[in-house]
Amino acid sequence: MHIKVVASGSGGNSTIIKENNLTLLIDAGASSKQLSKYLVNTTIDYLFITHEHSDHIKFLSSILKNFNVLNVCLTNGTFYHVSNILLNYTGNIIYITPDVYFIIENSINIFPLSTSHDAEEPIGLVFLINNLKLTYITDTGYVDKQYYKLISGSDLYILESNHDLNLLNDCARPKTLKDRIKGEFGHLSNKDAVGILNKVVTKDCVFIAAHISNECNTFLHIQKTFDELYKAPFKIKVYYAPQDGLEDIYL
């Protein structure tokens, strides 16, 4: 499996997953120009949209125009907000129901889990592809404990590590914005992310810290929190996804 985080953060989010001849794209927050660097074949087999915020959909129209997108996968709540963009889309729309498994290509199992964010019916995604498990969760104030068993034992966690709480509290942002970010419909902190990993990591794996705040976080703060708080007895290879993308990862 080949994973390419093309963009991650408030400026835009897109992640490519390639397996054999299949190309999956999570979110449409990277431009067609950015994506074309990594997609030699212009076909995107499945485009997943996790929610309707602009940093996840702002290039949806351009991507649909410049690539051969065969399937768009999203919840009904998200569709409501992007239906105007999909008005002339002639491919297949797959409506996702949170907490209901579905299968694509007769072999890839996908479980969409509900996230806690100020959007309408937002989701995270768990992929089972050729005996590998990939968990993708960003833009959520917390991860419900009911999902810990589901996401445990993943080979790769692309998990939000948005802010360091002290940096957030000390920044010049308005209190209302700080409260939103820290709240149950906001974003996971570094401490939140490591706490989740402590509960769900059951083997050596890879962790990509995603949706990192440029103002209220640094790679060093994430690493310090990880070094101090990570207690699970398994090795984790840690990567930090900057706004302009991350190196290629192969599993």
Helix and strand topology:
Blueprint lengths: L1 E6 L6 E6 L2 E5 L5 H5 L6 E2 L1 E3 L5 H4 L2 H7 L1 E2 L1 E5 H7 L9 E5 L5 E3 L3 E7 L8 E7 L2 E6 L10 H4 L4 E5 L4 H6 L4 H8 L7 H11 L4 E6 L8 H11 L6 E5 L8 E2 L1
Parallel strand pairs: 3-5, 4-6, 5-7, 7-8, 12-13, 13-14, 14-15
Antiparallel strand pairs: 1-2, 1-16, 2-3, 9-10, 10-11, 11-12
Any overview of this molecule?
The protein is an alpha/beta fold and 251 residues long. It has a single domain (2-244), classed as Ribonuclease Z/Hydroxyacylglutathione hydrolase-like (Metallo-beta-lactamase, Chain A). The protein has 9 helices and 16 strands. Strands 8-7-5-3-2-1-16 form a 7-stranded mixed β-sheet. The chain has a 7-stranded mixed β-sheet with strand order 9-10-11-12-13-14-15, with helices on one face. The mean pLDDT is 97.
Radius of gyration: 17 Å
CATH topology: Metallo-beta-lactamase, Chain A
Mean residue pLDDT? 97
CATH architecture: 4-Layer Sandwich
Strand ordering within the main sheet? 8-7-5-3-2-1-16
**Helix coverage percent of residues?**
25-40%
Secondary-structure element series:
EEEHEEHHEEHEEEEEHEHHHEHEE
Oligomer: single chain
Low-confidence stretches: none
| The CATH superfamily title | Ribonuclease Z/Hydroxyacylglutathione hydrolase-like
How much beta, percentage-wise? 25-35%
Content-based structural category: alpha/beta
Termini separation comes to 5 Å
Name the overall outline. globular
Largest sheet: 7 strands, mixed
DSSP summary, beta strand count: 16
Main CATH class: Alpha Beta
Output the number of helix runs: 9
Number of domains: 1
